[in-house]
Design brief:
The protein is mainly alpha-helical and 504 residues long. 83% of the residues lie in helices and 0% in strands. The protein is built from 23 helices and no strands. Helix 7 runs parallel beside helix 10, helix 9 runs antiparallel to helix 10 and helix 14 runs antiparallel to helix 17. The two termini are 17 Å apart.
Length: 504
């Protein structure tokens, strides 16, 4: 029996694609929880209380940054150790991962609890709701710490390339958490219900995923962990630049509302957020390509098999570009009618802003994809440093142009800074990892050359979306045409993916 995978190792492609599918399903559940449920919340709590809850969630999220990219680093290092058949290194890394999961979770819990008495005042919660906000924060903090442990322990199924069971568990648990949310709301827990649903999800994931990992660990005879303090400290040091990189990505991708509200006014922030919503939700699915295929990249690059490496790079790049092109087309063509029926056209920022946002987000996603490939190739510190530098370029450019360009400043700054560093990343991919970057450029040109005629056609015919029936027929027809064209120019790739999913 293979000491790392056992006799029934899942196809690496199948594991990664299943991982992507389950992550996508789970994101849909999160969207339901975070968007569809919002109108229901207002039957059980005031808008002010809900706003205070969102603010406490930001505090918990910032504390969660202490995770520092450990999950990515440990997955990459374990993948390399497995590819090299270095049992001793696998044991030490496994022990360091377990120790880090416990240590970081306890550290975040202690830090979070130390500021808990002040949290209601910091978010300006109403006096009548301050106690509920306090308990919602504490429960959310506990669930975040348990979730952090789940994230780090999830490195093991990734490097085993056995993600089906864990994906099923996560999907079922997410559905149960929505049921728990409704249950707690009905029984009068108010805003604390949201935090309790998070806790339910984290606990159930920890129990069932943890049990599966232990069972599978024994089944495949995976190397027993060794706990070495020195190696754990070294792993922590290795995560410094990934932490800064993660912080840079957060500042570039999640601070638009704050920046616009601070430098302009809150109305601009709201309009920007609503105009970008379809694109940002779609790109959240595209981003899963990075996480879902991370272990596959690491294992393949560590094998040093050039033919296999370029094959994997080719297939994952095609998958990424196809996903990104679908999001770009649908965001440009269908955001305006969605805004009309969702929040009203008075809150839509216009076609120019929308197209600029979509283009900037495409380049940001491409930069993140290239950065992720450099991570999997072991160039963690170098790519992280570039990510940090990109953030500084973004901030300087944004401050310089925000007054003359107003709300367009954010997507313009994102587009320019991302474009500059994509060139740098691509050069490193070619020189240091020996990847065929011409293939990636070809796929990008092919996909987006296909989008342009559809966009021109869409704006030229200007379908009346106030007639819902007509617009639904139009949406179905244009979707069928676009999917047919995508299939025609990627027929071989589609059949390859289908065959890999059926491979035993």
């Amino acid at each position: 029996m293979d000491p790392y995978y056992g006799n029934n190792k899942m196809s690496t492609y199948k594991a990664s694609i299943l991982n992507y599918i389950f992550n996508s399903i789970n994101s849909i559940v999160v969207i339901v929880n975070g968007i569809v449920m919002v109108p229901i919340y207002f039957h059980y709590m005031s808008v002010s209380t809900y706003g205070a809850w969102l603010a406490t969630g930001n505090v918990v999220a910032m504390l969660g940054l202490l995770e520092s990219g450990f999950a990515s680093v440990i997955t990459q290092k374990l993948s390399v150790a497995i590819a090299q058949n270095n049992v001793r290194k696998v044991q030490v890394l496994s022990g360091s991962n377990l120790a880090t999961a416990i240590g970081l979770s306890l550290t975040i819990l202690m830090l979070g609890l130390s500021i808990s008495p002040f949290i209601s005042g910091w978010v300006n919660a109403e006096i009548s709701a301050s106690n509920d906000i306090f308990w919602a924060y504490v429960v959310a903090l506990i669930s975040s710490c348990i979730g952090l442990m789940n994230s780090l322990l999830g490195a093991f199924p990734q490097v085993w390339q056995d993600t089906k069971a864990v994906g099923l568990i996560n999907t079922i648990v997410n559905l149960v958490s929505i049921a728990a949310l409704v249950f707690f709301l009905l029984f009068g827990f108010g805003v604390v219900s949201i935090a309790l649903s998070y806790l339910s999800r984290a606990l159930l994931n920890f129990i069932f995923q943890g049990s599966w990992i232990i069972k599978n660990w024994k089944k495949i005879g995976f190397a027993k962990p060794l706990f070495r303090f020195k190696e754990t400290i070294q792993l922590t040091r290795d995560c410094f630049y990934p932490f800064m990189s993660k912080l840079s990505g957060l500042l570039m991708d999640n601070t638009q509302s704050f920046i616009l509200a601070h430098f302009l006014n809150p109305t601009f922030a709201a309009v920007y957020d609503l105009t970008a919503k379809v694109c940002y939700v779609g790109c959240s699915f595209v981003s899963m390509t990075n996480g879902s295929f991370f272990a596959l990249f690491s294992l393949t690059l560590a094998s040093k098999d050039k033919e296999k490496i370029n094959s994997v790079f080719s297939n994952t790049t095609k998958f990424f570009v196809l996903s990104l092109s679908l999001v770009a087309l649908n965001s440009i063509c269908f955001t305006e009618p969605i805004c009309r029926y969702w929040v009203g056209l008075d809150k839509f920022g216009g076609t120019l802003l929308l197209v600029t946002i979509v283009i900037s987000k495409v380049f940001f996603q491409l930069k993140s994809y290239c950065n992720n490939i450099l991570y999997t190739g072991g160039l963690i510190n170098r790519s992280a440093k570039l990510d940090i530098l990109c953030m500084f370029v973004y901030i300087v450019l944004l401050i310089a142009i925000i007054k003359p360009t107003q709300v367009l400043a954010v997507p313009i700054a994102t587009l320019v800074s991302s474009s500059l560093f994509i060139v740098w990343y691509v050069r490193m991919m070619k020189d240091d990892l020996n990847l065929d970057i011409n293939l990636m450029i070809k796929e990008l040109v092919k996909a987006f050359a296909l989008i342009i005629p559809f966009v021109i056609f869409h704006f030229a015919i200007s379908v009346d979306y106030e007639n819902v029936a007509t617009y639904i027929v139009y949406f179905i027809l244009i979707s069928i045409c676009f999917f047919s064209m995508l299939y025609f120019i990627n027929k071989v790739f589609v059949h390859q993916i289908i065959s890999k999913l059926h491979r035993k």
